[in-house]
Specification:
4 helices; alpha+beta; Gyrase A, domain 2; 40% helix; globular
């Protein structure tokens, strides 16, 4: 199911639109089930685990490349053996379909990194 979102492209969000309604958030979240809805449905977050710092750093670099290509940028924290990615659309102070598209693409990256994941 994540391929449905992962196959889409983020669209520019200029603001002036409402964030996604709770029902739509849940429908999209079903396609990225490892992501948690946080802050009263204003953002989604996922923590990824790795065997060491180098793997986490490599993953963060890959996420950065995808984010640049999609022109939709997450907040990322990482360290030895982990990376935490937060997505929200700041212009609308909440969640947009773009957040879920990027989440699906990040999930696909993580899955493709294979046995290096802890």
């Amino acid at each position: 199911m994540a391929d449905t979102l992962a196959g889409k492209t983020c669209t520019p969000c200029k603001g002036g639109i409402p964030p996604l309604a709770e029902q739509e958030i849940e429908r999209l979240r079903d396609q990225v089930p490892n992501w948690e809805v946080r802050d009263e449905a204003h953002r989604i977050e996922r923590r990824f685990k790795f065997r060491n710092f180098a793997e986490a750093l490599r993953f963060v670099g890959q996420v950065g490349q995808v984010a640049e290509a999609e022109r939709h940028h997450p907040d990322i924290a990482f360290g030895w053996g982990y990376a935490t990615v937060n997505l929200q659309t700041k212009k609308i102070k909440g969640l947009h379909q773009n957040d879920f598209i990027l989440a699906a693409k990040i999930d696909r990256l993580f899955s493709a990194s294979g046995p290096a994941n802890a």
